[in-house]
Amino acid sequence: MGPVTRMKSIGTFTGLCTIKPRTAYRWLTATSLFLIVASATLAHAQAVANAQLSGVVTDPSGAAIPDAKIIVTQTDTNAVRTVQSGSDGTFILPGLAIGPYKLQVEAKAFTSYIQTGIVLQVGESPKINIALKLGGVTERVVVSSDAAMVQTDTASVSQVIDQARMVELPLNGRQATQLIMLSGAANDVGPANGMSDLTGSKNYFSADAISVAGGQANGTLYLLDGGENMDSLQNVNLPLPFPDALQEFSVETSALSARYGMHPGAVVNAVTKSGTNQFHGTLFEFVRNGQVNAIDYFATKQDSLKRNQFGGTFGAPILKNKVFGFFGYQKTIIRTAPPSTFSFVPTAAALSGDFSQLEGAGCQSSGIARTIIDPNTGQPFPGNQIPTSRFNQQALNLLSHIPVATDPCGKITYSLPEPQSEQQIVGRVDSNLNSKNSLFGHIF
Q1: Number of Cβ atoms within 10 Å of the Cβ of 176
Q2: Which pTM was predicted?
Q3: What is the helix (H) or strand (E) element at residue 237, kind and residue range?
Q4: How far, rounded to the nearest angstrom, does the alpha carbon of residue 198 sit from its chain's CA centroid?
Q5: Cα 224–230–235 angle (5° rounding)?
Q6: Alpha helices per DSSP H over 103-227
Q7: Is residue 196 a contact partner of residue 286, using CB atoms and an 8 Å limit?
Q8: What are 10-29's pLDDT values in tens digits?
Q9: How do residues 84-140 score in pLDDT, each as one tens digit?
């Protein structure tokens, strides 16, 4: 991995873009509205991209408190969700966006309870049981430490790979799927570009066949923002966004929920970043260049690899507390000297009809000279020279595009360039319509 530069201030973008602020704002707003409308038809599929919070509200004796008011606020966006506890004191808040939260509970004749430091991760459904103390509503009990959350409604085993690890850990090519191995019991049976019996050349180059906890490699389900992110031809993953544009992903296996259907091996559940009430931006570049790398121990010379991977992200509020936008871009450029190969082409003498040198013993692998026979007469051409009037004009037209060899036997050595480039563009818009409804959409 080469040097990396990260700047988390909106000021770092000054001078990098010539678009007027008002024009950019209008473009972002229009795109946001389009994404919000488009996401409405797919909202039913997004449940697995969110989290859920539940629990029981009780009094000091352990008796249930009905009709307690439970308010959760996502601190990054000020999105508020409110429910009331049932007759048995239970409450549930499904479909919560991942991120940090503040929990507040209020009930008559009891002190208010406030807890911060709650961080919900993708696919989680923790339970927080709250015991209220007798007192006035104006009195408060504030808990500011990290919440001790226990998830008891599933028997599966899950691990979350957070954004910090995706960005900071060294990854070859910055492919986030490599971090699935951190979850344990995972085995890479070969990338999709022809190295595995389960995959083939028709898959995207970053697709991978990964077996988790002994499951089949093509039995792993990949989700991106709640939607299936699979190559249906061979049941491997479609591309995932670059690490700076991913918020986190979880790897879940063992006794999976029935909602995951035909992929019982494991579930990789990835979520893209979203905007918040603050302006955030990053810039990065990773460089690998043979001129600054050490020579391989077994190599005879320095490699010619030139690999540049650069881009940035930008998140901001479009309408404070209501609509938030996020944009990410990454480009990868790979250049390297391709391997050399050789071919035999006509020499200048052969183009003039003189094949005596080509057919001599020095240019024959068998060391035996050959005589060229005239097919019209059955007799040898004198001196192995063919009149140019016998040449096919169409063949001569093709030969005009082929280099003429300087080697007496017509041998030329050449290399075919193999440049590689990839661009990733990620856009996402989140909208908090009210305390009961929210929409989001993304483009990748």
Answers
A1: 24
A2: 0.71
A3: strand 236-237
A4: 21
A5: 145
A6: 163-168
A7: no
A8: 332 323 334 455 555 565 56
A9: 999 999 999 988 888 899 999 999 889 999 998 888 888 888 888 899 998 876 666
